What we know:
236 residues; alpha/beta; Protocatechuate 4,5-dioxygenase, Chain B; seven-stranded mixed beta sheet; two-stranded antiparallel sheet; globular; Extradiol ring-cleavage dioxygenase class III enzyme subunit B domain-containing protein
Amino acid sequence: MLVAAALCPCPPLLVPEVAAGAAPELDALRAACLDAIGVLAAARPDRLVVLGPTDEAGSGPYPQGATGSFRGFGVDLQVPLGAAETAPERELPPSLAVGAWLLSRTDWDDAPVEGLGVAQSLPRDRCLELGREAAAAAPRVALLVLGDGSACRTVKAPGYFDERAEPFDAEVARALGGADIAALAALDEERAAGLQASGRACWQVLAGAAENADRSGRLLREEAPYGVGYFVAAWS
């Protein structure tokens, strides 16, 4: 059963060593992410599952102790997912590496951790099914759900400007803040892909996990500093 969820963005720039001189620009976003993870700890879960968007090659499960690296972003930094055990050979995709870094900032030891890479192209029905499976995996399951909104809010955004981006992000912010699983499940896959919204599939996995849980939500932070929609929310 799902007992809590924290929703955070996953740009590598959240990691100060990656952001370098621009790190202070995301201080408030980092603080909100840590507040959201605090809600997970307060729920006393038996298991924490970290969901992160990825490509097909990075999809699938990652055990506790799997390691992520930020070398691809010019920083010699590695971080394990949860308490380091025997590190598997398969490296965490970037989104899960960001999730592992966030957990390391909280010294997470409240429950065993596992990661799940979710292909951004995963169809809605399969996302919902995956969420149901995750929620049924333990009596008390918490989710750390990573993913960004549209990448088309400004002309300097990664996807350039698209007038559909701001309304899409407003819809997502409302759904995340209100724990509206029907709205998340109804997000249009093609529209999300066209706006480069990496979080769509992970949000729909959350919708599946929350189907039989009476959860309330709070939107802790919403911003788009680089033309990309970032949201932080907590469900409890």
